[in-house]
Design a protein that fits this description.
Two copies of one chain form a homodimer. Chain A is α+β, with helices and mostly antiparallel strands. In chain A, 42% of the residues lie in helices and 23% in strands. Chain A has two domains: 2-143, Sandwich (Jelly Rolls), CATH 2.60.120.10; 156-221, Winged helix-like DNA-binding domain superfamily/Winged helix DNA-binding domain (Arc Repressor Mutant, subunit A, Orthogonal Bundle). The structure holds a DNA duplex (30 and 30 nucleotides).
Chain lengths: 223, 223
DNA sequence: GTTTTCTTGTTGTAAATACAACAGAAATGT
DNA sequence: ACATTTCTGTTGTATTTACAACAAGAAAAC
């Protein structure tokens, strides 16, 4: 169990608490029974089938949102990091089982808020709750848009098009044609739903043809 | 311009207004400058690049959420119908351009609420707004979960697996192994990101092998 | 510093898919 | 009732991809 105070300044910067005064935030953390938990590398934070009644906020580390297909193949839905939330949509849809796993990629620190507890206590009446729900609405909106973009990435017909779409979208997000990506090759292949070796081959073809340049996780879009 | 009163009873049943009294709903419709608009078949309600500041609620009809890839291929992200919302996530993420088109599949009736107008007027202070934002949060949660399911559908590696995953998910939604699907063959192919003829071929193979039975848009899962 | 493990790129082959073309069925319009 | 258009299934071929196996390089462990 880590101490809340140590991370207070970072917690304050999370979109979840945007627009709250220090007093409101402190009250909220108490009301929500906030606690910090440390997860080891490759530990499961959330499993398919779990009922989620907590808000999970990543303070530090990286987490994969994954799904196993019936036939055992791994699908990476997204990679989350600092200040991202886990499985927020399953908090909003009460009593719906999680359809995803959340698995740490490295040692990860998570702030956990008991959403049920607070909503039952204050009946959504307090100011901080009003701010919170507004923030959650906006966070979910962003997540939604990200999911649509992921659908665009994986919906291209060839490996080449998937790569170019993914890299273009990353470049736009990072506001630069030169950027690092978060995935290694195997994870990128599982994210784009293609075979790793075929993808590697396509990457070096794209480089030979002068469309991109890359070194490990650093990529550059040319032309 | 259609008259609101005519559709009032249906509007009342929408998840957007769940938990509101008649008075609150009436006040809200006024405050939000509610109006009804009719769209013809294959008309665009929302275009990529639009800034969305209205809540769109489908009263009657069907709408495709689509995206054109760089190379002109059509991607169907989802098919929406009665009581569904359009592009809600772009209302929540202010000043973000829509990354999708919303195109009617048939003549469609839409309730339009000016979200900006109300939030600026009441500063989110009125009871009905509090109920509303709670409802929107839940609606977005559901949309989010649907998108994850769509990702599962299209992330299968073969056409066969995509079809079986899609059909299983539909069966679960409809609580029956015998059900109608909303897509025709071309639209289903654009939804699953596969070639229509290859998909047709795979469907009849699945039928011959005894896994499914189908006639037009009616499907049955066997075994 | 050496060994071991993990990651990435490369190649050949088998399998799956896209694409094009077409025919019959169904739906639509007149 | 007929003509026209749209939708669906079928087939052959060219292309793309998955899969397996392996080698070189980097990172981690000893």
């Amino acid at each position: 169990m880590e101490r809340l105070e140590k991370y207070y300044n970072q917690i304050k910067t999370s979109p979840v608490f945007y627009g709250m005064s220090d007093d409101e935030l402190k009250g909220l953390l108490e009301c929500f029974n906030a606690r910090i938990r440390k997860y080891e590398k490759e530990e499961m934070i959330i499993r398919q089938g779990d009922i989620i009644s907590n808000i999970y906020l990543i303070l530090d580390g990286e987490v994969n949102i994954e799904k196993d297909s019936y036939w055992g193949r791994r699908i990476i839905i997204s990679r989350l990091g600092q200040n991202d939330n886990l499985a927020l949509s399953f908090v909003g849809s009460k009593n719906i089982e999680s359809s995803i796993d959340a698995i740490t990629v490295e040692d990860t620190l998570v702030l956990i808020l008991s959403y049920e507890k607070c909503t039952s206590m204050c009946q959504n009446a307090c100011t901080r709750h009003k701010i919170l729900i507004n923030n959650l609405f906006q966070i979910l909106s962003k997540e939604n848009i990200e999911l649509i973009q992921k659908i665009e990435n994986v919906s291209q017909k060839s490996i080449r098009d998937k790569l170019l779409t993914y890299l273009s979208n990353e470049a736009r997000k990072k506001h630069s044609n030169s950027f690092d990506i978060q995935f290694n090759r195997q994870d990128l292949a599982d994210y784009l739903n293609v075979d790793r070796s075929a993808m590697s081959f396509e990457l070096s073809k794209l480089q030979k043809e002068g469309f991109i340049k890359y070194d490990k996780n650093h990529f550059e879009l040319l032309s």
